[in-house]
Design goal:
transferase, globular, about 250 residues, single chain, 7 helices, Nucleotidyltransferase, domain 5, 5-stranded mixed beta sheet
C-alpha cells in the first residue's frame, strides 16, 4: 500500500511517501502548503494518508487540501485513539504528543524484540520508553538544545546568544562564551546519560534510539560513553511510526 505520511512539528513539516515499509521520498518544509500536498498526491496517488500535528490551529489547511487532492483515499488524523499495537498506559493519553506516540510506534515496529529508549532531539528533548511487550508508560520532556541557548540570552541581561559548537569537548569553559557552551552541551550530555541509566536498570536487552534534527549531535555527545554500542540513529522515526500505524490500520 502506498501511504502519504505527514508530520507537522513545531519547527518543520515533513512529508514522506511509503510503499509498504520502504520510504520512497521525504521532503521537509517550514510549513505545510497546498502546493506540496498537491505535488505528492498527483505524483504518487496514495492509497491512504496519515497526518500527525502538534499545531491544531493548522488542521483546516491540510484537511481542506487533502480533501481536494485525493480521490477514494482514506485520511487519518493520528492521535491516541488510532490503533497502533502499542499498549498505552499514559494516564492522560489525549494530552500525549502525537509525535511522541508515533516515535514509540516506530521504535517498536523497527525493533520489536527489545526494550527501546527513544530520545527525540528537536525543539524539545523527549525521552520515552517502550518495552519488548509493546507497553508504554510515559516519558520526559525538557528544553531542546537551541532553546537552552536562547533562554540564557533572553532571560538574562548580559549573556550573549551562542551558537552550537559541535567540536566542544572541554569539561568546563574558561570564558563566558565557552562557559555557556559547557553548561548547555555538557548539561545535555549528563542529562542523556542520567535518563538512560534510569531506564536500563531493569533491562538486559535494549536499544537507544536517537531521532529528530539533533540526533547526530546527541550521538556525538554519547560517542565515548558505555552506551555507544546500543545507539541506533533513526532521524525519520516519527514518519516510520506513522507509516506503521496506517499500514496496520489498512491491513
Amino acid at each position: 500500500m502506498v501511504a502519504l505520511v505527514i508530520d507537522i512539528g513545531n519547527t518543520l513539516t515533513k512529508i514522506a511517501v511509503f510503499n509498504g515499509d520502504e520510504m520512497l521520498e521525504v521532503q521537509q518544509y517550514p510549513e505545510v502548503t497546498r502546493i506540496a500536498l498537491a505535488e505528492f498526491c498527483s505524483l504518487y496517488l496514495p492509497d491512504a494518508v496519515i497526518v500527525s500535528t502538534v499545531k491544531n490551529a493548522e488542521r483546516h489547511i491540510w484537511e481542506d487540501a487533502l480533501a481536494a487532492f485525493t480521490i477514494n483515499c482514506s485520511i487519518t488524523a493520528f492521535d491516541s485513539s488510532t490503533p497502533t499495537g502499542i499498549n498505552n498506559h499514559y494516564k492522560t493519553p489525549k494530552t500525549l504528543g502525537a509525535d511522541r506516540l508515533a516515535a514509540v510506534v516506530g521504535a517498536h515496529h523497527l525493533y520489536p524484540n527489545a526494550a527501546n529508549i527513544i530520545i527525540g532531539g528537536g525543539t524539545a528533548i523527549t525521552y520515552d520508553y517502550v518495552d519488548a511487550g509493546a507497553n508504554y508508560f510515559g516519558g520526559s520532556i525538557s528544553p531542546g538544545l537551541k532553546m537552552r541557548y536562547k533562554a540564557l540570552n533572553q532571560f538574562t541581561g548580559a549573556l550573549p546568544l551562542i551558537e552550537v559548537d559541535e567540536n566542544f569537548e572541554a569539561a568546563y569553559g574558561d570564558d563566558t562564551a565557552s562557559a555557556i557552551t559547557s553548561g548547555v552541551q555538557n548539561g545535555i550530555k549528563y542529562e542523556l546519560t542520567g535518563f538512560i541509566n534510569e531506564y536500563i536498570k531493569t533491562q538486559q536487552a535494549y536499544n537507544i534510539i536517537l531521532s529528530g534534527g539533533d540526533s547526530i549531535f546527541f550521538d556525538t555527545l554519547l560517542k565515548n560513553s558505555i552506551f555507544a554500542p546500543y545507539i541506533k540513529i533513526e532521524p525519520y522515526l516519527v514518519l516510520k511510526g506513522l507509516n506503521a500505524a496506517i499500514q496496520k490500520h489498512n491491513d
